[in-house]
Amino acid sequence: MAFLRTVSRCNSLVPRKVSSPSSTGTNGCLSHSRSEQFLRQYGIHAASNHRGQLSSALLAALNHRLTLEGHPSLDGTRRWRSTTVAAPSPVSTGARQRQQQDNNPSTPQRDPLDVSFNDPHAAFKSKTTFELIRAYFVYVLCSSEFLVENNMKIMKLMRAILGDRLFVYLMKQTFYGHFVAGEDRIRIVPTLTRLRSFGVKPILDYSVEEDLSQEEAEKREVEASVSSAGTNLSEDSADSLPQYSVDKTFADRRYKVQSARTYFYLNEATCERNMETFLECLDAVKGATFGTGITAIKLTALGRPQLLLQVSEVIMQARRYMMDLAGSTGNILTHHKTIQDLERYLGNVSDKAEVKQFLEKVTSDKDGILHLFPWTGIINEDCQLSETFRVPDPVTGQMRRLISKIPPKEEEMFRNMIRRLNTIVKTAQDLDVRIMIDAEQTYFQPAISRITLEMMRKYNTEKAIVFNTYQCYLKDTYKEVCTDLEQAKRQNFYFGAKLVRGAYIEQERARAAALGYEDPTNPSFEATTEMYHKTLTECLRRIRILKDANIDPKKIAIMVASHNEDTVRFAIEKMQEIGIHPEDKVICFGQLLGMCDYITFPLGQAGYSAYKYIPYGPVNEVLPYLSRRAQENKGVLQKIKKEKRLLLSEITKRLAKGQLFYKPKGKYVPI
Length: 671
Fold this sequence. Notes:
- InterPro entries: FAD-linked_oxidoreductase-like, Proline_DH_dom, Proline_oxidase.
- There is one protein chain.
- It is built from 27 helices and 14 strands.
- It has a domain at 310-401.
- It is 50% helix and 10% strand.
């Protein structure tokens, strides 16, 4: 019954209690504060007379509500009794719940959640004692600034001294073993199986990265960002936007980036191999996780970055064009201008044949214009970019290109990129596995988001298969998410989003200052946190609206991808406040393998949808990934400090109990 499930859910979240009868005749628990929240949910507005005891008026109101809803007890009546607040220990509560679950084997194992994330047993019971000692050792090394700053040099020196075989063995016992699941899709299966048994699902990533020098990376990027005609297309026009041009100073996109993987374009054959790698990840996810897993991909791995630069600039130029019509900035669909408004803006030239053809291709609905260009054709692999992105001049009526003439070979490259992405997403749909398209630098992101949204429109017709990623360090993130939610609503597709703080903030600030455009980033960590929480709250609010309207709440699916426990705690509290439950399967949480286990595992074991980002690949080929993990951990010393404290606590307890050879055994089922 909904009432009893709500009481049980509240009982699992808080330590203080007010007892109520249960069907077994024993007392159930509900805290004083949760009681009031629960009563407000059921339309009963009253207050208690003091902490720990409910007023007689409140009890009478609750009993009346129980009677109306028909919740009989064993003797045919149902009454809520007020008792003094008690404070059972979390251990006894957890033990009682585990005993109840053992008595009912069909019920998935669930543990109470400590939202302070200070329970070492919940954090690490999925680990052997050796794994805990290794983790502690790794974090101690990550606390050394000298070792972290010179980690790649040290690893290469060790490989030269020890030889490949001994070096690989040493890495598997330390950094590689902690941060990477295995060498290939077969060897990662035991890790995925154990994660699943403790309520955690995987996001797979084949983390082989090229170890390029800065000079080689710059050379590749410059060549791949300039047209084969020999000019930088984004500089052809006087109206070009400096943000969307290549600059040799920032051509190495790894500059000041620690937590994101970077692909550098070599040729079309490399992009084909990248596509095959992503397809293998999909097969691995399906085979090892029963369809609950996710694969992460980057669009820059699938095609020439110059094309993304150009399409991004086109999108921003189109927004400028609409600004002249609407008198304000922002995405086109937010202006709510109609085709008739556009015709009036074009005035006498709207009767010209080319202008009429342009107007016929504009995408609109009853609420106004959605898109100026036929994006549907673009993702169907049969478009010509040069001919698609043209708008009429309101004075002359001449069709003006927003993108320079693209050579036929580069048109074919763009179609190849879209074909590869279509192949990946169609395979994911067939396998019932989800795709998360990672965010990248702001000069690529308008194109990435536009293409991803169109993939959602095409494939997210029955469930969220494709997810876009939104970086909350950007000033426009909230507006962008609201706009994309609006498009999903108006075009009736399922919306999937991964919210992250972001990986490129230092690079973005430096590039904006050097090239002379407005800094797109928030000014502080606190402003980024506020943006993250504001955006998440809006998504939760819209999910609640769907629930209240009896519309599938899964029309909006959100991943809270954060290592910040305050943000995770905020999400949990907002879910409870707004009335969204883990069982709704609309909110999930994600962290990297080997980081913040004290957040991920308690969430999964408490019945929340929790994911680990799982890298895999041969030892010698994932060294750049391991280098970035070391750098990232150096930047979060407070987080490491807490994880080390919890690790040391659990190691000490196990040694005191003689559990040196502890074997993890989980009976949890991921939600």
